[in-house]
Design a protein that fits this description.
This protein has one helix spanning 310-318, and strands spanning 9-11, 18-23, 32-37, 43-46, 52-55, 63-68, 74-79, 83-88, 94-99, 104-109, 115-120, 124-129, 138-141, 147-152, 158-163, 167-172, 177-183, 188-193, 199-204, 207-212, 218-223, 228-233, 239-244, 248-253, 259-264, 270-275, 281-286, 291-295. With 326 residues, the protein is mainly β.
């Protein structure tokens, strides 16, 4: 266990629980973080410092899902107002609105950014062609309860979905057909495709499980001391992080499942965690309405963790939304 004290940066601004977050890839301007919140105002931030860049205004209900294209030029959000929206992430302007018949729980871009995947409480998945936004979407049905999350495979030929019906399903995009169903002991709480597209991370109950993204064979699974709502695998696949109902952020060894660190920082259940694309930090969102950034290697000089005195870190972490001092 690490003996060093972790000092997370608190990113204020949201007023309700933060339920989902995603990073972009590394771009010429660094990397970026988008957060979905029940306050209906998804936010874009600089990924390594948490500095607020902008808020996407337009949804009329809680935002449940948010994502960025790999180059961070476009964003997408899904909300309780029965819409998914695509945004210009540079200007903040709304580009497309796609109407649904129920709450949109999740959104994901294909790796080339040309297609948008949505999952809704209609128990349906849709793929919209962003080059032909007026065209009818491809629809995928088969889940018997609402969809929690869904992602494109690395090559975009399949989609992977997790739903309240205690299943993970894999779908062939070309044929619109279900090609694999994995039954779980409890409803899945999160689904993540690893940075290189090779591993699917699924949480359910107190279990974090890892699956081969080509064969869907289970690679390993580990139990936690609390109900786990979310987990994320480090880009180099040496460690993973998770959070859940007991407010604690955990770090584990990916090979053995050994607990490496456990940090209390949030004042409510942890709903979402993600590693940054360079693996140096991870972000978490909570029922307490905050988004926090944590160091993967505690004490390393990186981002806003360039301060010498602990009180400088506290001062930085409470400021919102201000640009970091050079």
């Amino acid at each position: 266990m690490s003996s060093l004290k972790q000092t997370p940066l608190t990113c204020s601004g949201h007023t309700r629980p933060v339920v989902f977050l995603t990073y972009s890839d590394i771009t010429p301007f660094g990397y970026f973080l988008i957060s979905a919140c029940k306050d209906g105002k998804p936010m874009l931030r600089q990924g390594d410092t948490g500095d607020w860049i902008g808020t996407f205004e337009g949804h009329k209900g809680a935002v449940w899902g948010a994502t960025l294209t790999r180059d961070a030029k476009r964003a997408a959000t899904g909300a309780a107002d029965f819409t998914a929206k695509v945004w210009d992430a540079v200007s903040g302007e709304e580009v497309h609105t796609f109407q649904h018949k129920h709450i949109v729980k999740c959104v994901d871009f294909s790796r080339d950014g040309n297609n948008l995947l949505t999952g809704s409480q209609e128990k349906m998945l849709r793929i919209f062609d962003l080059e032909k936004p007026e065209a009818d979407p491809k629809c995928f049905t088969g889940h018997t309860a609402f969809i929690k999350n869904a992602v494109f495979s690395k090559d975009g030929k399949q989609i992977i979905s997790a739903a309240e019906d205690k299943t993970i399903r894999v779908w062939d995009v070309k044929s619109n057909s279900e090609v694999k169903k994995i039954e779980l002991e409890a409803p899945p709480t999160s689904l993540e495709l690893s940075h290189d597209g090779s591993v699917v991370t699924v949480t359910y109950g107190s279990t974090t499980s890892f699956w081969n993204a080509d064969t869907y064979e289970k690679l390993r699974e580990f139990q936690s001391p609390t109900q786990i709502n979310t987990a994320s695998l480090h880009p180099d696949k040496t460690i993973f992080i998770s959070g859940g109902e007991n407010f604690i952020m955990y770090k584990f060894d990916y090979e053995t499942g050994t607990e490496l660190e456990a940090f209390k920082g949030h004042f409510g259940p942890v709903h979402c965690v993600r590693f940054s694309p360079d693996g140096e930090v991870y972000a978490s969102g909570s029922e307490d309405g905050t988004l926090r950034l944590w160091q993967t290697t505690v004490g390393k000089t990186y981002g806003l963790w360039k301060c010498v005195q602990p009180d400088e870190i506290t001062q930085n972490s409470d400021s919102t939304p201000t640009k970091a001092e050079a």
